[in-house]
Amino acid sequence: MVKEKEIFNRARLLLGDGVMEEMSRVRVIVFGVGGVGSWCVESLVRSGVRRLTIVDCDRVCVTNINRQLMATTGTVGQVKVDALRDHLLTVSPLAEIDARCEVFTEATAESFRLDDYDYIIDAIDSLSDKMLLIEMATRTRARFFSSMGAALKIDPTRVRVAEFWRVEGCPLARSLRQRFKKAKSRPARKFLCVYSDERLENKPVDDAEDIENAASSAAMSGPDIIQQPSAAPRTPKKQANGSLMHITAIFGLTIAGLVIQDIAGRDDVS
User: Fold this and answer.
1) Long-range contact list for 111-118, CB < 8 A, 24+ apart?
2) Percent of the chain with pLDDT over 70
3) CA distance linking residue 95 with residue 169, whole number of Å
4) Is the pLDDT of residue 237 over 90?
């Protein structure tokens, strides 16, 4: 039987026992486990984070396979957080993975008890829900990291980290800032974002609409689908944008790196 200490031996050699002990104690919540969030979670668990909550209301769709960790031809139709939890437990069997098939909205926000966490990670697509999470997360004691838009990009060398108000060239960040200004509001404190200033466009594809319709049908079919709770309605999708795993994964892995770096750099951890 594989021992947990052996799994993380290479991480221990780099970080030390004190940091690894803290990694196993911190509580992390990740909102959105798609192309960005799934890779972030994978890195955290493989680095020794054990107490993790993952939140997403979607099921695996065939069009997720090109970029999302748990999306395979064998998991199409499964609840994303359940498929991801099952995978993560094969990596770290002692991990405590709370898989919540829910959507973060104004109606459900308080149920997530954000004050209970040490780290809050935002990989949400919806602008309104993302803005709400930013507002609430920055009022907690937790360290907060956010992913900006990872679609329509190819160049990995243009992925950057910057404070929210200093992100440049990202339409998503600009839209969020405009919303804050219109609401005459600001996040309660500064926070770091992962972003890229690359801006490409979708190529014309003859069967694009058919592809998306087929994907939606596949995600909602199959005998082993778990019924979503009423608190997590399936949200309508906006127009799909092209995206690639090497970019979405770099976004997610970078956020995981920020968490690990923060834990390793704390004065109370040796």
Assistant:
1) 111/231, 112/29, 112/53, 112/55, 114/29, 114/140, 114/142, 115/140, 115/141, 115/142, 116/27, 117/27, 117/28, 117/29, 117/53, 117/142, 118/26, 118/27, 118/28, 118/142, 118/143
2) 87
3) 38
4) no
Is residue 243 a contact partner of residue 152, using CB atoms and an 8 Å limit?
yes
pLDDT, tens digit, for every residue of 1-30? 678 889 999 999 999 999 999 999 999 999
Q: Can you say how many angstroms the Cα of residue 58 is from the centroid of all Cα atoms in its chain?
A: 13
- Which band of pLDDT confidence, cut at 50, 70 and 90, is reported for residue 92? very high
Determine contact, residues 244/67, Cβ cutoff 8 Å: yes
| Vertex 32 angle, CA 80 and 9, to 5° | 80
Cβ 33 vs Cβ 56: under 8 Å? yes
Helix axes 80-91 and 37-46, enclosed angle (nearest 10): 20
Q: What is the DSSP letter of 235?
A: P
Rounded Cα–Cα distance for residues 85 and 97 (Å): 6
pLDDT digits (tens, 9 = 90+) for 136-194: 999 999 999 999 999 999 999 999 999 999 999 999 999 999 999 999 999 999 999 99
Residues contacting residue 81 through CB under 8 Å, at least 6 positions apart? 33, 54, 55, 56, 99, 100, 101
**Six token digits for residue 6:** 């052996």
113 CB-near residues (< 8 Å, 6+ apart)? none
- Run of H or E residues at 29: strand 27-31
Q: How far apart are CA 144 and CA 134, in angstroms?
A: 8
Burial label for 27, CB within 10 Å (0-12, 13-18, 19+), is middle
pLDDT for 231 equals 40
Amino acid at 54: I
* pLDDT above 90 for 268: no
